[in-house]
Amino acid sequence: MKKFNIRKVLDGLTAASSSSSAASAQSGNRENDMIQETLQSEHFQLCKTVRHGFPYQPSSMAFDPVQKILAIGTQSGALRLFGRAGVECYCQHESGSAVIQLEFLVNEGALVSALADDSIHLWNLRQKLPAILHSLKFNRERITFCHLPFQSKWLYVGTERGNIHIVNVESFTLSGYVIMWNKAIELSSKTHPGPVVHISDNPMDEGKLLIGFECGIVVLWDLKSKKADYRYNYDEAIHSVAWHHEGKQFVCSHSDGTLTTWNVRAPAKPAQTITPHGKQPKDGKKPEPCKPILKVEYKTTRAGDPFMILCGGLSYDTVGRRPCLTVMHGKSTAVLEMDYPIVDFLTLCETPYPNDFQEPYAVVVLLEKDLVVIDLAQIGYPIFENPYPLSIHESPVTCCEYFADCPAEVIPALYSVGSRQKRQGFSKKEWPISGGNWGQGTLSFSEIIITGHADGSIKFWDASALMLQVLYKLKTAKVFEKPRGKEEKSSTEIVDEDPFAIQILSWCPESRVLCVAGVSAHVIVYRFSKQEVTTEVVQLLEVRMQCELNEVESPECGGEQVSAVSTPGTSSSPQTSLPQSHPSTSSNNSSDGLRDNVPCLKVRSSPLKQSPGYQVELLIQLVWVSGEPPQQITSLAVNSAYGLVAFGNGNGLAVVDYLQKTLLLNMSTAELYGSTDPHHRQPRSPRKTRQPSAGEQTSKRKLHPLTNNHDIYMDNSFSRSRSSSVTSIDRESREVISSFYFCDSLSKKSETVAVPSLWVGTSLGSMLAIALTVPSTPEQRMQQPVGVSFCGPVVRLKGGILRMAQLDASGTLLPHVYESWYEPNAPEEERERPQRRRPTTPPSSQENPDCQYAVVCSEKQAKVVAMPSQNCVYEHNITETSFVLRADVVTMTAGVGIACFCANGHIMTLSLPSLRPLLDVNYLPLTDMRIARTFCFSNQGQALYLTSPTEIQRITYNQETCDNLQVRLSFQTETAGKASRSLAQHIPGPGGMEGMKGAASGVVGELARARIALDERGQKLGELEERTAAMMSSADSFSKHAHDVRQSLAIHHDSCFVK
């Protein structure tokens, strides 16, 4: 076999991770060269696929009433587009500036975005990937408000200086027409009116522009005569303005909680002034001031009273009240409380035409952490059931796992039990944001994402076909007693907050056995059942884990081969603990007054009703030992074929038989080595401070964010470790259990037949093996104990062990051993327990005793070891200057490989078994621990991570998937003087003009084409011919007015001013 070299890649000051692949084939193993590897570098390409979840820190929103597409902008410059269920799209402004406003070119498949860096951008949404066509950067003025009239090519841009500039949307250039603030207000104010906070056109006359200034002045500007028709003064600042559809009245919302209604031709004083939430004094005086009304919308109906919808305006004495949306309809006023502050809201109407009865039917409310749509047509204003996966952050995500190519029956089974958990009381109507089309060529395999959360909940998500839908939610906190208040918190808890938070997940899709580890040093084993049961007493097993000899004085250099010496062992150790059939009644104090033999959380004492779905099989809790709290669990694995669960931490490891509810093994890491321990260990250092007795006040530990034994800063509020709970000081002197792997293997050099085994990986780079003797029949399995014998070290690597796997003699990945699912609550006579599935291993021959390969990947390197000879046949140094955060052995269509994500942002893949580098991309620098804690690979070239506290980013490293990605949004429509160069700079976008057609001249033709396009999409804009005739008549007047405007403006290359 020839050697493969991979070049070093430099990214700034950070060296890339690759060094030459050391194909150190042993002289006796040249037959390995005969393994034909089918996985090649051309099978890999890295690209983002889809982003799920709620847009993090939203800042603006827009809706296309014809295409029925919703756009949301964020403070980080992201743009999220939503259509019907499953239709989502993510885009990003390169500058990363906040999106302050969005405006759709209605039914055009285009969108204008205004950013906080004073740039505006035109997006083309109708090409394969939405892209920016044009950009315009303002240099001397700050953008405060934008307005794009319906079916117009003129974008009005208001600035902080009070001026309004006009942009031609087709060419994205500034017009020479500027409305200066001093010309607009003239003598109506002696001072500067402040920024422009509102711009809108009169619904009945697009030549009349309504301009709102922050100080309270509103100006109706005549575009043709270039002067103000009317000026309206109010002594309170303005936040928003809304027109009546007839264009004869408008409403302003103010900073003192009032709404003023003005007649267009009566500027002297408001026709009406109301304070919706103000207390009306009996003496007729002005109501007390309220909080500002941030936005108001005024929508009319043909058959009834108009709707006035507003946010804000509550009385100042409503301290602690949640944010509210107020709906005023006729004489009724409904105050709808929201869970989070309101960012923006939009009223959805039956028609996009501003000069027709609006007929509002829903309100989209964008909150800081949620999206709510309210049904205005039903009594009580119920909300619509949201089809988007926006509840990922319902409780902060603490860990996640990704399973691609799952058994086909798992998703329907989870959906059947999860459908019973759905909330009731939603609107009976269909979700109104229903635009876009499904992408073609979706993936064919089943995918499941599991997320663990800070409140102890676990969510199962169907992630097939680039969608995300919640299937089932499990609440693990139900097995514990919940303290009613902080004063009732147990003094034995070891975390300041979120004591039920999920830290590690281990799931077997075939058997549906789930095992979770929490931050309070507890492990829960769940079985899946379709039947409801009531558990009188939760099965509890308390484990006392301590280690007197674990501090390493001078660890030897990792990476050297260690010959394995089989060390006989027993099935238990002196630290075993009997299972508890009831909540622990152990004494809280030892003889010297220190806490001892008490768990961190109190187990539920009342009967537990368990609905169909995941039900508790066994609860395992680590207990305090002589005044010291238990170490957090750093590794976890469950195996359904053996009926065992293994977990480890800084003190050692434990193996529990969850079928017999007994503790098989509980020992320190040092004891695993036997006489072959390569480290010089000393007794643990005594504690610096005395633990307070049970009656004294104690301060709980503050958990430090660590991952893979590297101390990295994380600014996230939830600082949990995924694979290490020791401090950075202890990390250098303590060997932590970092990974497990159950398999049928040849763990001893003398073995010729594979036997059940447990491989153990440690933070100091050692891989050790434990042989298990599992009774063969189901009857014997429940009666006889599982035997344990120690095989000692197998191989050592640099850095902590992250992942282990097994290949057969042909280099094929051996699937994990499992038992197929069966109904655990079925009567014994009806229960059909399937035989466990185990991989077949060809017998070894005298010429070639090695018939298996162990694949071991650490934070620094990867090795392939022949079994049972334990010769290292391949070795590759993954990184010298960084370290691997996540590594997985993955199956692709073309073969098997190792996928790695490094702390320096590189994503790499290696072939198996030769460890040839196939992919090395500098993708994502590690910015916080959220990414490190949640990044995971899966089969078929899929991966994901939590890109923000509310969003999951899915990526693929599969070339075939990248090629087959289809557009997720599809629009089916048919379209319709010189400024100062120093004011704004035009920047051509990378998107090209694909699918974009220039707007034609003439309002009549524009309305006709729009009407045809709307009818093609099934949008009924009117049922009466009189309404159509009115539209055409209005269009004629608009067209005549446009002709006059064109003559007054000296604008080159434009056929009309207003379409």
UniProtKB/TrEMBL annotation:
Recorded hits in PROSITE patterns, A to Z, give:
V_SNARE (PS50892), WD_REPEATS_2 (PS50082)
Key word Cell membrane present: yes
The WD repeats extend over 231-265
Among Pfam families, the record links this protein to: LLGL (PF08366), WD40 (PF00400)
Query: Which organism does this record belong to?
Result: Cyprinus carpio
Which PANTHER family does the record cross-reference, listed alphabetically? Answer: LETHAL 2 GIANT LARVAE PROTEIN (PTHR10241), SYNTAXIN-BINDING PROTEIN 5 ISOFORM X1 (PTHR10241:SF37)
Give me the ranges of the annotated region Disordered: 270-289, 558-599, 673-709, 824-850
- Where is there biased composition of kind Low complexity? 566-591
Report if keyword Coiled coil is assigned. yes
Question: Can you cite an annotated GO cellular component?
Answer: SNARE complex
The protein's name:
Syntaxin-binding protein 5-like
The protein's superkingdom reads Eukaryota
